[in-house]
Design a protein that fits this description.
The chain has about 200 residues and is an alpha/beta fold. It contains 6 helices and 8 strands, in the order βββαββαααβαβαβ. The chain is globular and about 50 Å long.
């Protein structure tokens, strides 16, 4: 089976500083790729390039025909005055996902938010906000590519276990994941498929 994502010759600058160049990257079905590197090396910038949110200064990113790509950044991108349910429906609409209210309720329940669906997210803790953002993943209909920037941030032990189970299930169904994490993945998700570590170097 061919790769889902291919990147060739990627380069990125931040102001006058070059974060990286000549990055070659490939992700295959059933694969987890852990992007590593010290602070300021451009890990988040690389994820945004791979997700197609911003264009690279050089190079090209190609997603396999028909493959879906879900991106969750370091920020949760929630609207404070909307409820958890309204936020998730809004985000599903932006993704072009056709979901019912029951689908959305089930996704929030999966992330442990049953009973808080109608509450405005401004009343939520940081961990609960992160769970609302991650509930988007439970709405993905096909096992495509998930690109996640520090997805375990603000999660407690229970939330970490729930996300770990989602990641494992996604990969087992043929999906793939590219993520950053300051946590050791073998400790937080011990049953995750073999993880390929990819260290982002820096040239400046």
């Amino acid at each position: 089976m061919g790769s889902i994502l291919n990147a060739e010759g990627l380069a990125c600058r931040r102001g006058m500083r070059r974060l990286f160049r000549e990055v070659k990257f490939e992700v295959s079905p059933g694969e987890v790729v852990w992007i590593k590197g010290s602070n300021g090396r451009g890990k988040s910038s690389l994820l945004r390039l791979l997700a197609g949110i911003v264009a690279p200064d050089e190079g090209e990113v190609r997603l396999a025909t028909g493959a879906s790509c879900a991106f969750i950044g370091h920020a949760n991108a929630l609207k404070d005055d909307l409820s958890a349910l309204e936020n998730l429906r809004f985000m599903a609409g932006l993704r072009g996902l056709s979901v019912s209210q029951q689908d959305v309720l089930a996704a929030l329940q999966t992330l442990g938010l049953a009973g808080r669906e109608g509450s405005p997210v401004r009343t939520f803790s940081q961990g609960q906000r992160r769970r609302v953002a991650l509930a988007r993943l439970a709405l993905e209909a096909s096992p495509g590519l998930w690109i996640l920037d520090e997805p375990f941030d603000a999660l407690d032990t229970t939330g970490t276990a729930v996300l770990g189970k989602m990641l494992s299930g996604h990969v087992a169904q043929g999906g793939c994941v590219v993520l950053t994490s300051h946590l050791e993945l073998s400790l937080v998700v011990p049953d995750l498929a073999p993880v390929r570590e990819w260290v982002l170097g820096a040239t400046s």
